[in-house]
Amino acid sequence: TRTTTYFILLNLSLEVFEEPAVYLLPFLFTSLVKVLCLLVFFGRLTHFAKVTHRNVFWKDTKNICIMIAILLSLTDLAMYGVLRIYNIRSIRWSRIVRPIFLINFAEKENRYHFASKRCPSPWQIQRAFRSICNTLPEITYVFLLFMFSLLMFSLMALKLFGERNLQTAEGLLYFRNYLEIMFDLYVLVTTANSPDVMIPAFDFSSWYALFFIAFVIVNAYIFMSLFMAVVYNNYKKHLKVTFGGLYCD
């Protein structure tokens, strides 16, 4: 298990040395290291398949993810090598699958030993990822309520400002397209475009400021606070269950 972890970290560290790289190493060298890592992963997976019942092995999603990641990595390496021979520039798209090995290989280390450490371990990363996955279904309803509120406010904005021929400072039409309104109000939740997004309406009538004040209060303060509280409480609950009551603050 510890050896597999070292090869996982080595596989991730190749990002620094592969083109485009911070410290570029020869392609042949990084390719050999990459193949070595994949062989170790495949050997670990094969060993696990031999000591596990076939039905149990194939029903485990983690094993399927690892096999797919190995195949994608080999395919990308072969394609990149062939294109390199013909001097055709390409992108190593398999880089996005490398973290799959880190979060799917099962760790057998003592959880109490890791729970006492300040630095994160591979076991903690895996369990934290699974806690996030378990939390996502439980925050879906809050997210849907937030989206419903955003859709309703966008529709109200379209009815309020869409027929008044308002323009932005750049001379563009203001709040005339429903999808653009949704995007602008979504950005307003982060206050990144405040107060620019409300200036044309405010210049037309100062009373329209009440619309944006209500939107910010409902979505930025109430819904975002509620969303963060639900995420935190559910994640903390799953993390406690995963670590048996011992988890790092």
Task: Describe the model.
It comes from Corythaixoides concolor (Grey go-away-bird). It is a multi-pass membrane protein. One of its GO terms (cellular component) is membrane. Its main location: membrane. The chain crosses the membrane at residues 20-43, 64-83, 139-161, 173-189, 209-232. It is elongated and about 70 Å long. The chain has helices at residues 2-13, 27-50, 54-59, 61-85, 99-104, 111-115, 122-135, 140-161, 178-189, 199-204, 209-243. It has two domains: 1-118, Four Helix Bundle (Hemerythrin (Met), subunit A) (Up-down Bundle), CATH 1.20.120; 134-245, Helix Hairpins (Orthogonal Bundle), CATH 1.10.287. It contains eleven helices and no strands. The protein is an all-alpha fold. α1 packs antiparallel against α2 (27-50) and α8 (140-161) crosses α9 (178-189). Mean pLDDT is 84; it is low at 109-119 and 245-249.
Task: Give short descriptive properties of this protein.
249 residues; 11 helices; 0% strand; Helix Hairpins; Four Helix Bundle (Hemerythrin (Met), subunit A); membrane; mainly alpha
